[in-house]
Amino acid sequence: MERDKESKDFLLKGDQTYLSHISVDSVIFGFHEDQLKVLLLKWKGSGQWCLPGGFVMKDEHLDDSAIRILKERTNMESIYLKQFQVFGDPQRERKKNEFLNLQGLTKNSWIMQRFITVGYYALVEFSKVTPEPDVLSVECKWWDIHKIPKLIYDHNSILATALDSLRRSLNDYPVGYNLLPEKFTMPELQTLYETILDKAIDRRNFQKKMLALGILERLKERKTGGAHKAPFLYRFDKKKYEKAMKQGLKFGF
Amino acid sequence: MERDKESKDFLLKGDQTYLSHISVDSVIFGFHEDQLKVLLLKWKGSGQWCLPGGFVMKDEHLDDSAIRILKERTNMESIYLKQFQVFGDPQRERKKNEFLNLQGLTKNSWIMQRFITVGYYALVEFSKVTPEPDVLSVECKWWDIHKIPKLIYDHNSILATALDSLRRSLNDYPVGYNLLPEKFTMPELQTLYETILDKAIDRRNFQKKMLALGILERLKERKTGGAHKAPFLYRFDKKKYEKAMKQGLKFGF
DNA sequence: AAATAATGTGTTTTTGTTACACAATGTAGG
DNA sequence: CCTACATTGTGTAACAAAAACACATTATTT
């Protein structure tokens, strides 16, 4: 029950370590088997699912909190992270009663206060992630973006906003470097775009536009093993990709 | 000294009313004499300039805090407000010492704690605003966007981010309804766009594109009084404008 | 009354987007 | 082993949008 003591301490004494009233919630996107996935946690008590989240340490940069939380859940470094919105409805956690059966916890306890949460979304390479529950949860796993269950509080709404935000960003910034393995095929990249945009794109026009961005490098290898004609492998030119991320693109389907 | 008591109470006992560690800062844009303006406040103590800001009441929606703060500074209702970014660097207010000479205030006081601030920008009709200082400031006035002084903390950076955010939003949403008087000319609208984008736009192409959006109504009147040929007056079709705000546009120069 | 400076309008050129067709190739099944 | 199939690779024509550009009109100033 070492872990239980840890979570109890956290709930009772969190205000010694963390800022009050402020939390961070992350929508962690991955891409696997031609599907966009999101990493969710299952609560110890109620068994409900939620977004991975956490709190801001007293002297920690807000962005660093998001990075730390992500690292703890995915065991990964260097992930793409973007702050997309703050959720500040005083009623957003109105059914926060899952802790009240805990010894020593009252309505005035730190954790029972109102929290304003800062939403981040992350793009990670699915295969490199080993999902790991936090002290308050029993399970951590990927969910298909089309099959998300009812989540606690306003987390469904946060997730929807994150997806919308990611979608809009596709017109200004390239995507893929953080979601795909180092080497990938054009059809794979296209499926990623189609999945995020939830929209079919013409194969030839997609390739034309993508190559025109000048951030892709075609390798001499082809991807073998699959059925049918072997497609070429590509990889991102990191320098040019990052330049595109800084400057922004004009890119719209 | 009634006002001084008020500000002292605020600094010492703010934590009875407001959430700790969270503030709101607003970049209030106006448009006057073909220039984009920003409303700034001058501090009582140090005489430095800053963005209008405030705190979130314990049971208040974050957005409502921004609305309240704006109303207090501008005496205006129904302004366009947009949350654009959170600033969470623990060092962002590192030189917060303007209060320390206040009787009863210590380093542990509420106001001396670290604050994470949520940035909003507002678009308001210049002529309808009567700038009003808050309890902590002695002056409130418009500044030309190109002549902003050194502001406290990270407020210059917040302002720059707001402008950048507004600039980017021009590609997705129309602007003008909140910044211009009810009736305006095409050259005035164009100057607004040029000022925000800091870029010259072809007069004929601008008009073509604007009219194509279908959110403008040309009046029979012309604007008289100025030198040269009298331009037509236009006004926004409110319903169509709001529809465009909801749906978003494809609009880019 | 003429000069000036700004507005009103339309056409051409260029660029980008969309729609579409056929040849090439690796695997699976007979 | 050969054929059918599904998928990849490539190019072109039609269309739409953006950029470049010119001339007539009009209110004020000189």
Polypeptide structure, described:
Two copies of one chain form a homodimer. Chain A folds into two domains: 158 residues, Nucleoside Triphosphate Pyrophosphohydrolase (Alpha-Beta Complex), CATH 3.90.79.10; 64 residues, Arc Repressor Mutant, subunit A (Orthogonal Bundle). Helix content of chain A is 28%, strand content 27%. Chain A contains six helices and ten strands; from the N terminus they run H-E-E-E-E-H-E-E-E-H-E-H-H-E-E-H. In chain A, a hairpin with a 5-residue loop joins strand 2 and strand 3. The longest helix of chain A is centred in the middle third of the chain and has 15 residues. Chain A is elongated and about 65 Å long. Chain A starts with a helix and ends in a 6-residue tail after the last helix. At the A-B interface, strand 1, helix 2 and strand 5 of A face strand 1, helix 2 and strand 5 of B. The structure holds a DNA duplex (30 and 30 nucleotides).
| Oligomeric state of the chains in view | homodimer
Outline the low-pLDDT stretches of chain A.
none
* Biggest sheet descriptor of chain A: 7 strands, mixed
Tell me, rounded to a whole number, the average pLDDT of chain A. 93
Strand segment tally of chain A: 10
C-alpha geometry of chain A: elongated
Structural class of chain A: alpha+beta
Q: Please give the CATH class of the largest domain in chain A.
A: Alpha Beta
CATH hierarchy: architecture of the largest domain in chain A: Alpha-Beta Complex
CATH H-level homologous superfamily name of the largest domain in chain A: Nucleoside Triphosphate Pyrophosphohydrolase
Q: Which topology of the largest domain in chain A does CATH recognise?
A: Nucleoside Triphosphate Pyrophosphohydrolase
User: What is the CA–CA distance across the termini of chain A?
Assistant: 53 Å
Q: Quote the beta fraction of chain A.
A: 25-35%
